[in-house]
Design a protein that fits this description.
Strand content: 15-25%
Order of helices and strands: EHEHEHEHEHEEHEE
Helix content: 25-40%
Bound molecules: 5-O-phosphono-beta-D-ribofuranosylamine
CATH topology: Rossmann fold
Number of strands: 9
Structural class: alpha/beta
Shape: globular
Distance between the termini: 21 Å
CATH superfamily: Formyl transferase, N-terminal domain
Oligomer: single chain
Radius of gyration: 16 Å
Length: 201
């Protein structure tokens, strides 16, 4: 089965998924890594792993609609069974999202529904939360609002530095994203009636 991964940055989650495909935790292959940012280090990770890379930069398109049409057409050339957003920092339109309903995953660095959007770690610390974490969800039209599949929580205190918290959350991300992608590839996970469905057998 085919996986396509979209990134904008370092690609440490991408790396965790590459590793999991290699060691058999995920029964599938990453066919291509897409970035909207030329200097995204994740592109180097992909090349090092022998995976095709595609750079689709929005600035070369007259509108978001044009950008997303080319993005989607290029993605479709790889006939993906699953599209994984891993630190992809652009908001996708409903048209794009609905083209891939049920096969589009995202990871978000908060315990959703808390803190959709940006600066999640800072908000959790500033609010004096005792826990924080990461969420994997199916992508729907609502930003960071699709059905939740899996969350990982870590304890935090207001004394923690933001950098420390980011690091701990990312360690959790690298654990849970390969797990969820693995389930999807096994056919144990799907989106049904707008909810995350899991076969627990
Ligand atoms: C992750 O923390 C993810 O939750 C957020 O962006 C970060 C991406 O990191 N949306 P990386 O590019 O996978 O290293």
């Amino acid at each position: 089965k085919n996986i396509v991964v979209l990134i904008s940055g370092s690609g440490s989650n991408l790396q965790a998924i590459i590793d999991a495909c290699r060691n058999g935790q995920i029964n599938g292959n990453i066919k291509a890594v897409f970035s909207n940012v030329p200097e995204a280090y994740g592109l180097v990770r992909a090349q090092q792993a022998g995976i095709a890379t595609e750079l689709v930069e929005s600035k070369y398109f007259a509108s978001r609609t044009d950008y997303e049409l080319v993005l989607a057409d290029t993605i479709d050339r790889y006939t993906p069974d699953l599209i994984v957003l891993a630190g992809y920092m652009r908001i996708l339109s409903p048209t794009f999202v609905n083209r891939y309903t049920g096969k589009l995953l995202n990871i978000h660095p908060s315990l959703l529904p808390k803190y959709p959007g940006l600066h999640t770690h800072r908000q959790a610390l500033d609010n004096g939360d005792s826990e924080h974490g990461a969420t994997i969800h199916f992508v729907t039209e609502e930003l960071d609002g699709g059905p939740i599949i899996l969350q990982a929580a870590i304890p935090i205190t207001p004394q923690d530095s933001e950098a420390e918290v980011i690091k701990k959350v990312q360690q959790q991300e690298h654990r849970i994203y390969p797990l969820v992608v693995g389930w999807f590839m096994q056919g144990r996970l799907a989106m049904r009636d707008g909810k995350a469905w899991m076969d627990n057998h």
